[in-house]
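Summary for the steering committee. The consortium agreed at its last meeting that each partner would contribute one worked example illustrating the joint modelling workflow. Our contribution is presented below. We chose a case with several input lines so that the handling of multiple components could be demonstrated. No manual editing was applied between input and output; the record is shown as generated.
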Amino acid sequence: MESLRAFGYTPQTAVADLIDNSITATADRIWIEFDWDGADSRIAIGDNGLGMTEAELKQAMRPGSMSPQEKRAVDDLGRFGLGLKTASFSQCRELTVITKTKADGVHARQWDLDTVVATHEWRLLHGYPENCADLAERLDAQPRGTVVVWQHLDRIVGTADVDDEDAHRRFLELARSVRSHLSMTFHRFLAPREGRTVTVNDHEVPPWDPFLSRSRARQVLAAEELPLAGGKVVVQPVVLPHRSKLTAEEFELASGERGWNSLQGFYVYRNKRLLVAGDWLGLGFQKEEHYKLARIQVDIANEMDALWQIDVRKSMAQPPGVLRAELRRVAKVTRVRAVEVYRHRGKILTRQKEKGLSPAWLQLVMHGKVSYQVNRDHPAVVEAIEHPSAQNVRNLLKIVEGTIPIPLISIASAERPEEQAGPFEGVSSNEVSTLATALYKSLRGRGEDHVAARDRVLTTDPFQYFPELYEVLDTHDEQEAGA
Ligand SMILES: Nc1ncnc2c1ncn2[C@@H]1O[C@H](COP(=O)(O)OP(=O)(O)OP(=O)(O)O)[C@@H](O)[C@H]1O
Ligand SMILES: [Mg+2]
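What follows is the complete predicted structure of the assembly.
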């Protein structure tokens, strides 16, 4: 029993595992309550599903209540006959299940790990503790359903005092975070047309749709059906809209708890229930800023569980070997499209000039190398050249610094590092010498001696890349001296 506690659930995934059971029991009203009472706090998950007869309840309380080999109904979210027990014991030491069917009325059973340890017996207790009477009443008021209660939450509240403000705050914060996890995991069950409500402490859990289905600016690429084990895996790639096409609220929402960058990749659903959110599934891709708009929906059926190595927690899925090449291909195509949308603004930058606008920066490609140039036609540049006052130079620097085309540069250098021009690459050595000499002269003009001025130039960006300037400047000095 103690080993059943070590499946690696988080409180969020543990609650989700119980919601699986409620949804499989066809519940359309599910409520979760975090009741703070210090060390006696409890978490209850109630539903109005089919409920269980007494015999079914006893069976359900057994670890391994059903073999993973057994064929399941197509919409069954379970697999191992373990979740109720492993999820619960990962968070608490007392698990009570109260359930009601139309035919068999209300029944309750409880596992208390301390009793099991003390008696060395698998003693499944009858009934429910007194402090759960309110929950039993609530259940009895409905035609049927089930309430699962976690008490003795040693891993969540420990021995906290009821007046411990910090512990109380953490408990409520956990409730909020569970709500957000459910919002994502079950978003397809929470869509309005499903007619199902889930609440956490009376706050309704809204669906969180990673694909922004309501946004018209997104790109839905061609769906693919990949055959697997007599069935099919449905893959639907989506490229989310560029930030500029979303309202601030939509943008914020789509970034979720984890942020845009970490949410790119595959979303694997088993019977519409999200198992893995935003992951490249070990197919050899990295999460990179410019691919962040790529999200790919993958739908699998519960008969493929073994092939995808679904675990008890339903928070892992590994693509079977035969699908890897196909998934990699889809990912590549989606990523290419995602970069196009992401860099759209960058393209605009280059096109602006054609349209008569004045970008501060231009992207140049010369001899296959990409470099960037401050636009000589930009009014601030023109002004600084024609009226070179301190203020105009400062204005120019401000504009140059404030408009560095970072997205454009980072995409180009991540995609084709070998094509990026190095400092002053492609600039003729004459031009470099002229610039260096001008700087040298102005330093000499300000009273520095030959050696100091020469060395200053050679340690000034970008002249440090041109050690041959040493000779040039030395010769220059000799010429000066000779003249
Ligand atoms: N809320 C519920 N309403 C009705 N029946 C339930 C409920 N929760 C559990 N059960 C019954 O208890 C059984 C055991 O649940 P448990 O979560 O341990 O395993 P499972 O759902 O079959 O598989 P998995 O380990 O993959 O979750 C279920 O198969 C179901 O018959
Ligand atoms: Mg289950």
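Residues 44 and 149 are 4 Å apart (CA to CA). The longest helix spans residues 321-342.
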